[in-house]
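Researcher: I'm preparing a figure for a lab meeting and need a structural model of a single chain. I don't have an experimental structure, so a prediction will have to do for now. The sequence is pasted below. Please return the structure as tokens so I can convert it later.
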Amino acid sequence: MANQPLLKRNNDAIHANGNHFVNGAAADIAITSHGSDWYWTVCAVMAVSTIVFIGLSFTKPRSHRLFHYITAAITMVASIAYFTMGADLGETGIRPEFMRTNPKVSGTLREIFYVRYIDWVITTPLLLMDILLTAGLPWPTILYTVLIDEIMIITGLVGALVTSSYKWGYFVFGCAALLWVGWTLVWTGRKHAAAIGSDVSRTYLIVGTWTAFLWFLYPIAWGLSEGGNVISPDSEAVFYGILDILAKPVFGALLIWGHRNIEPGRLGIHIRDYDEGPSYTSGTQNLEKAANGHNTGVTTDGATTSGATV
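Model: Understood. Here is the structure written out token by token.
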């Protein structure tokens, strides 16, 4: 009894959820308990970040909480994804194109976490909305950039699940989409943010540059793991986990801090709470009267009619 620890540390997720026997095959290149521990750690970071971002939202009026809610949604979805990966679920075994002799990556089937891409297909559009709304970009530009982003994520997933060299074709499609998104972040969005004001430009420059830099590291992680089978699934977990922590909780902290003194109306975002007067309704009625030939003496502000309304 004296030699036994008072509190035994035991992560049994790997054994509790089977032996990687999925879709009729067993993945023998898979995470160990160390990789599972790391996934649980990232899950905790994401969950705590979600609580913090939601808590900070209560320091703002309801009509000014858009960026808090979007950012909290990002880390909330990520926490569920990392919970799933920590439990060694949401994965399937795929035969790698390159068979390695290194014992850490030798085997016939490599574990691919498709739940990671489900996370990204939800969270990366939200990240882009956080950034591009900060720049006051027009909605058509935002929606088109989100579409290109979805192409980037889906081609990455398809490439990860392909066993032949054709996976690199999908990799090229994904990188081309990433270049488009990167161009929007570092050039188009920066110009729009600079036109609004120095404080908006500074916030955008920080979060936009931060995100663009990190996102260009993800193809390297993909090429070393799902693509080339160079690093072990545990190392893959660390690589992606560090990138996701920097790209989500750290990004969120930088964004929320930058927005602390920025009024959403300056970005073209007009949200009316239930306890505010129906100013937009009366404005619409005045416009209708003017259209019917009644002179109401009310003029409309061009900034009000042209701004993005959400």
